[in-house]
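#lab-general

N.A. 3:47 PM
ok so I finally got the sequence cleaned up, no stray characters, all 416 residues accounted for. can someone with queue access submit it? mine expired

B.Y. 3:52 PM
send it over

N.A. 3:53 PM
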Amino acid sequence: MPSPAENMKIDGQRLWDTLMEMAKIGPGVAGGNNRQTLTDEDAEGRALFQSWCEAAGCTMGLDEMGNMFARREGTDPDALPVYVGSHLDTQPTGGKYDGVLGVLGGLEVIRTLNDLNIKTKHPIVVVNWTNEEGTRFAPAMLASGVFAGRHTLDWAYDRTDAAGKRFGDELERIGWKGEEKVGDRKMHAMFELHIEQGPILEAEGKDIGVVTHGQGLRWVQCTVTGKESHTGSTPMAMRRNAGRGLALVTELVHEIAMKNQPGAVGAIGHVDVYPNSRNIIPGKVVFTVDMRTHLLDKLNGMVAELMDRAPKLCEEIGVGFEAEIVGQFDPPAFDEGCVNTIRQAADRLGYSHMDIVSGAGHDACWINDVAPTAMIMCPCVDGLSHNEAEEISPEWAAAGTNVLFHAVVETAEIVE
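B.Y. 4:20 PM
back already:
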């Protein structure tokens, strides 16, 4: 298939201006954004995105989950579209680029094609996936999960936020509930551009991350049971301290993750201590272990070791241990053909690049179930994300979007 010439590049300044314009909607308190899903600010951001897409000659589709699909027609009415995009919703204290770069980078691909008067055989569709962050309505990647068949529509509609408001009701309230059935669309391929959300690319001095895999995940909810007693009057030798069990398992999780380097992580992020009083030895601690790696056998082995060793450690100090897996998905391997297209585009454009594993979940991880999919990453300063101080440079944004442009257009096939 014909490839774009190496001198074909996007308008980096226009892209940056578009990012800054979107960032005006739902401003945070410290320079970032608070544009949580299905809020009035989300609705306003969606309307701006639609106006830009329509000005670029696209038609807008909307499905029952509020996923937005801006379509630029191809020359072959029977050719499946090439999809490109990410999400516009943010964390409560989010940055200006997480997700947004992928959506507005897709828009810039369309604008550049228009500038160069290039036609493609396959249509190109820029997508804004609803509720990728999962911060207001859990879980993350909710709408792409429904699209890929991971969740049912009714189950998604019944998700509630901290105030008890239903996802389905809020989607209708902001006016972005479509009639198109979720998941009916067929894709030729999908590409997602995203900031790395980690420090590797910046530390290695690379322009582009070629994402080969996403991480698999296991969330193991653990309960350590001891005996509540007075911290001052209970002799040390007679204590059944559930807090000690937490401490031992915390160190065990770290040991297991370090033993499985490279490419494995593990930590305890959520802890509930009972009764959580200053002068009572904890009688119960409930906590969640988060283990991740892109290798399925390694991931399963890490969890198996935790399940084998943690009960024994707790038994030695006189406390009980129980655990269950409460969240999981296996590591996705992105399509080799799409990955190679990205790698070749970076080479053609002269950008330094390296293969990388995504440490976070993304909509592309679910879409990978139903279509050939791959991801491009650009560096972010100090690897900081999900933080209002999240920052990238205009040059990083342009480089990632240039690679995106070449990968998408080559896959959509230029018509001479």
